[in-house]
Amino acid sequence: MKLATWNVNSLKVRLPHVLQWLEASPVDVLCLQETKLTDDKFPIGEIQAAGYQVAFSGQKTYNGVAILSRHPLSELVKNNPRFDDEQQRIITATIAGIRVICAYVPNGQLVGSDKYEYKLRWLEALQGWLRDELKNYPNLALLGDYNIAPEDADVHDPVAWKDQVLCSDAERAAFRQLCELPLKDAFRLFPQADKLYSWWDYRQMAFRRNRGLRIDHILLSLPLAERCIACEIDKTPRKWEQPSDHTPVIATLKP
DNA sequence: ATGGCCTCGGTTCGAGGA
User: Fold this and answer.
1) What pLDDT, on the 0 to 100 scale, is given for residue A59?
2) Cβ atoms of residues A5 and A232 within 8 Å
3) What is the distance, to the nearest Å, from the Cα of residue A55 to the centroid of all Cα atoms in its chain?
4) A8 is near strand B: CB distance < 7 Å
5) Catalytic: A104?
6) Choice among A58-62, A175-179, A220-224 with the minimum mean pLDDT
7) What's the pLDDT at A20?
8) What pLDDT is recorded for position A15?
9) Looking at A52, A104, A137, A197, which residue is catalytic?
10) Which nucleotides of B are covered by protein (CB under 7 A)?
11) CA atoms of A99 and A75, how far apart (whole Å)
């Protein structure tokens, strides 16, 4: 069982990449963020033709999330039921006995800004909701673009990024609170090479210079963490023409 | 050198992303 997450930065632009990647990497579940499509524009046909069922929740211009699955999706929920949010950032479904939550955490823009305060409120509400969700669904996976680099090891230049958005103490504390639910960062369940990231700025040849951040994560409840045998970041699509600035993260679970 | 790039909406620039 393979679960993956990928911020595609416009599914309209990146659909060929998604289909190409799935052909080479046929995961069971793929969570997408920043689809940037209203639901009437979602490319259902192309995704079904690739062998995936799909659930999605979009809006115009910004945000938008989707879950692609080789197995049936049930108990679909859009957004956090406890957080009134016009922005479409969460979609949840039960797939093969796993509660799969696909999340696009707000960026926060600038520490101290209104958007940053919204990000912290949003994360607190997420944590509150998941605390109860875990009681109903012990097999729970939270996949997505967290817009948080949890540790300095997840940052190419921790000095430059110190106290900046994505790296601030309050954001990292919110990430740790999710981990204390408890949920396990699948990537850190295993020894990993240094300087592995999931996002690189489009500017300054950041990808070529590997000036990135690890901000896309797969958090697993304890029963799933015990089943997890691998977690990898696949940099391949970041090398393609007209790439997303993010690249997929994949967790492999044994039956 | 206090920006550099990409996407969208809607026009050829501004907002937002991270």
Assistant:
1) 95
2) no
3) 15
4) no
5) yes
6) A58-62
7) 97
8) 97
9) A104
10) 4-9, 16-18
11) 9
The strand B neighbours among A residues 92-111, by Cβ under 7 Å, are 106-107, 109
Residue A146: active-site member? no
The residue type found at A212 is G
The whole-number Å distance from A14's CA to B2's C1' is 32
Hey, which bits of chain A come out as E strands? 2-7, 29-33, 53-57, 65-69, 73-78, 90-95, 98-104, 140-145, 184-185, 199-200, 212-213, 216-220, 228-233, 249-253
| Threshold 0.85, pTM exceeds | yes
pLDDT in tens, A92-113: 999 999 999 999 999 999 999 9
Query: Which residue type occupies A92?
Result: T
Statement: the CB of A21 is under 7 Å from strand B: no
Cα A171 to chain centroid distance, Å, stands at 16
